[in-house]
Amino acid sequence: MIHFSNLIEVLYAFLHVRFTLKLLDKMRCLRKRSAVSFLGVLVICLLFLNLYIEDSYVLNGDKQLIRDAATHQLNSERYVHSFKDLSNFSGSINVSYRYLAGTPLLRKRYLTIGLSSVKRKKGNYLLETIKSIFEQSSYEELKEIAVVVHLAEFDSTWCDGMVQDISQKFAHHVIAGRLMVIHTPEEYYPALDGLKRNYNDPEDRVKFRSKQNVDYAFLLNFCANLSDYYVMLEDDVRCAKNFLTVVKKVITSREGTYWVTLEFSKLGYIGKLYHSHDLPRLAHFLLMFYQEMPCDWLLIHFRGLLAQKDVIRFKPSLFQHMGYYSSYKGAENKLKDDDFEEDSFDLPDNPPASLYTNMNVFENYEASKAYSSVDEYFWAKAPSTGDFYVIVFDRPIKISRIKVVTGTEDRQNDILHHGALEVGEKTVGGKKGRQCTTFLRLGEFKNGNLEITDVEHKVLFDINCMRILVTKSQKEWLIIRSISIWTSQLPSQ
């Protein structure tokens, strides 16, 4: 049985070490008093998250103490409308939505795509964004998605006109039940005037970004039970072709690993993927801290509070910012994601495998980082003749294509100067795990890179192992930037 005092001691020590420097650095423009105050609020938030994830381990009396502390810290008069039940972070927020187009889903989908939109002073990209989502999806993919557009504008005339345009241009998607347009009445919003002016932002900027946090919170709350996964977009985005298929591949490749957020764009809060079961907690989090900082900063803190320390971002990016004018005052916004590729369908399969190397690994640049589509790499000190990097697949597979890239743009000499790629058929157990006893050489590295196609026609057996072999010692260190494997069929069950 864990008591309140013990929780305070443990969480205070943890937060003091981990968050203080990070928060003060990120919020360098914030006054010292505001930074300490917000850290206190984060302590309370983490207490709530811990309390209701492991609810059965906390005494009822301790729960009441935490509720009282939170009420005092967060100014109950401001939050009372949105937080009638602070004791249930995993429950939905009590909001009545208006369906402007579409009807409730009859069955659960694989992915919900959510975007919130308001009236802009210059330009409007919402219709183009919706068009891109549908045009870049195949008929089979369309069966597995739901698109929810939250018109978060209090100007009813603008909303009516936008609903009419959407309903006319995308009538068949509305009828098919894959497109819904919703609106949250203004009465459900918390105070949007007299907010804290963090980072010396002008009052209208603070109001804009604070309302935006609430807009997204209500959108997340609505989408919580529509699908297994949720991806957040802005209303001025272009999508890569067959993006859903790529997302499904990535999710499958992460099976058995813990993650809170997978990122498919490096810009703002575009292309951020979540488990749908995390949406209610994220919605509460955005509402609780809606006036503290912009949405994309809050998402970073949310991910950290749920124990995902590092960013998990995939390349190429699947979503691109296409708007020229910001929704805030029509200011210019030329941000582009230079990792975006419109045709990203050719993502490697990289089936589940164990990775081994006898090279001298530098710091935490371990072998697994070369076999992931995350923007990371394997780095070893100068390798010698006979050193190896081995991939042992969980099941025998047929491979159609292999591509290996070594070195990086800023370390162009840290390549494999002399090496070969080999595949093996049979494995035997050992102290260091399964290994293949014999290998067939498929090709040699040239200028640090190697790509082999039609592998299934060159190798007559199902492949158990793949090995990168150093054939001549080198004084330069070695970076294996990426290993990409495409299979010609799924592994046998």
UniProtKB/TrEMBL annotation:
InterPro entries, per the entry: Glyco_transf_54, MGAT4, MGAT4_A/B/C_C
Organism, as annotated: Python bivittatus (Burmese python)
Positions of transmembrane segments: 36-53
Pathway involvement of the protein, from the record: Protein modification; protein glycosylation
Ranges of residues in domain MGAT4 A/B/C C-terminal: 353-481
The protein, known as: Alpha-1,3-mannosyl-glycoprotein 4-beta-N-acetylglucosaminyltransferase C
Keywords, sorted A to Z: Glycosyltransferase, Membrane, Transferase, Transmembrane, Transmembrane helix
Gene name linked to the record: MGAT4C
Domain MGAT4 conserved region: 76-340
GO molecular function, one term: acetylglucosaminyltransferase activity
GO biological process, one term: protein N-linked glycosylation
